[in-house]
Amino acid sequence: MDQVRVIEIKKSIFEDNDRDADNLRAELKGKGVFLLNLMSSPGSGKTTTLIKTINSLKDRMKIAVMEADIDSDVDAKKIQEATGVHSIQLHTGGMCHLDAEMTRQGLAGLEQEADLVILENVGNLVCPAEFDTGATKNCMILSVPEGHDKPLKYPLMFSVCDLVLINKIDVMPYFDFDLDLCKKYVLKRNPNARIIPICAKTGEGIEEFAKWLEDNVHKQKGEK
Amino acid sequence: MDQVRVIEIKKSIFEDNDRDADNLRAELKGKGVFLLNLMSSPGSGKTTTLIKTINSLKDRMKIAVMEADIDSDVDAKKIQEATGVHSIQLHTGGMCHLDAEMTRQGLAGLEQEADLVILENVGNLVCPAEFDTGATKNCMILSVPEGHDKPLKYPLMFSVCDLVLINKIDVMPYFDFDLDLCKKYVLKRNPNARIIPICAKTGEGIEEFAKWLEDNVHKQKGEK
Known about the structure:
CATH class of chain A: Alpha Beta
CATH architecture of chain A: 3-Layer(aba) Sandwich
CATH topology of chain A: Rossmann fold
Structural class of chain A: alpha/beta
Helix content of chain A: 25-40%
Radius of gyration of chain A: 16 Å
Oligomer: homodimer
Distance between the termini of chain A: 36 Å
Number of helices of chain A: 9
Number of domains of chain A: 1
Strand order of the largest sheet of chain A: 1-4-3-5-2-6-7-8
Number of strands of chain A: 8
């Protein structure tokens, strides 16, 4: 396989991240590129979910992945090897989140055009929610072992997400996880959130997530 | 039960957090108080681990708990109800970590003396590792569902911890988690780290953690 490209991104020089993020979102709309900002705790299954979903979608559209990480390049390599899609690693230099300028630096580092760009944000339920990356939509993964009470404890994360994937539903019998209560807590934070229970390991729910992405990619191009 | 006290802590006014943290550590040593800074991802089982451990230790020493959270007071209430020990909630006002001054504000808000104070930091593997709280020792919990590769992805967290608890070992059969490899990765980050596999739900390993705490409390008082 090709070597994965690693980009050392720098902190934004712009004071007004929200304005910069809105500008980036408009530029992406103009180009017909759908950018998904994917957030979660460490270990919730972001990478496995991406691999399954990309393999389902890659023959239907051009996909690129930007993996943000403090300093490893484990995930970008894993995704490129498992799916063949163009993946780059963004090193945040210890930063706990990405902002719009950092996202812009990542996009500029992509070496192939894409209809769908997925940004895997730093594994953290706090800081990434506070900084608008300029992505078209936000998605987060909550995994069953983390507990159904997380929307109560990390309110901002759940309120900024358009889509919440509830992952590892195969292990629900081994954890005290109340799916209905969890959905209720998510909707309390964001009544418009779409919720899809999935199991990245077995593939359950992945088609529904892929369909959501595909619909959004079409919308972004003005095709639907 | 009594109402749990909630303290709104403010960001440090000190530029030099490291010096402030060293000062706090020395003051605690002078008073014979052992302060443990407990860190982890969201949902790794910090609160359940604390409840089990405190119930094992509370007849042998005076314990107090400071629960840091963005804005809920779920955990402090839960701990006070389940153990009877004095617990307060520290609201970080959206901040993703605690620094030494914030910890000092929490300690000043305790209404009872204690031999052991446990600070449950914000659920986050990135930022809390960057700010020395002034605690006597640092401990983190990694849970099996998060994956054995986390020491590779969150290097600083693992290098600052004196003790790593590997929790939820009861569900190891359902996850691709290699305990030996995980231990190797932890020791790569910090060759002096103590590692204890536990299951907060069943109680496995909790006595070993309680013993580690008890030994440290004695040391802090100069009794051993």
